[in-house]
Write a structure and sequence with these properties.
four-stranded antiparallel sheet, globular, 11 strands, mainly beta
Length: about 120
Amino acid sequence: QVQLVESGGGSVQAGESLRLSCAASGSIFSISTMAWHRQAPGKERELVATLTSGGTTGYADSVKGRFTISRDNAKNTVYLQMNSLKPEDTAVYYCRVQGPWYRPYDYWGQGTQVTVSS
């Protein structure tokens, strides 16, 4: 069983920055694809950013150029650097880890609240 512990959420003003962290237990981190999703009140959960074990990144159009996903395999931690935050970024942010085709698994963190006020 893998546990994901998120941190770094909070309340900020528009234009400010936050960095989210997600620490994973277990020994699977280096072979996993990591992702951040978010869910705003009354909306469906959406994919924000992904980072494969090979280092390929992907971003939602709404966050391109503002958010950066990165990982530290030595610390089993994935980060989401969020710059130039907007009120529409307000949501609960979830970390997700998925296994490769030869060892499938799918785990979610408990979520961390990000609130951006104008």
